[in-house]
Write the structure tokens for this entry.
Amino acid sequence: MMIMSERALRLTVFLDDTDTWHHRPMFTEIVHRAHAAGLAGASVFRGVEGFGATQIVHTTRLLSMADDLPVAVVIIDTEEKVRAFLPQLEDLLIEGVAVLEEVEIIHHRSRQPGAPSARPAQAGQVDGAGQ
């Protein structure tokens, strides 16, 4: 197994799940903008409980408090690409918080590129063909 690591920057944007941009969820807009900008990846994580600037705890346990649940959009790429993406967040007028953190990315590779696959070929398929 080959292990590779590299430095990167993680951008986490904390929002409410009810935040919108032109009638679509704000987190969806951020993910689509990150994709269009060619960033390495973006994921959205829903929180089950949390509070922010209003100091009101929102939770899925109480139906009356189930609005405005926390959502985190996480984007990881090189520092240069993430910092170049930040002005797009300013355009969205986000009322949440954005956090930047230096991270180390660990890649686990089971084989060298171009090496034969360790898994058996499927019936009628030569290893690597048709993929």
In short: The first strand starts at residue 2 and ends at 16. The chain has two helices and eight strands. The beta strands are 2-16, 20-21, 24-25, 42-46, 49-50, 58-59, 70-77, 97-109. Residues 79-91 form the longest helix (13 residues).
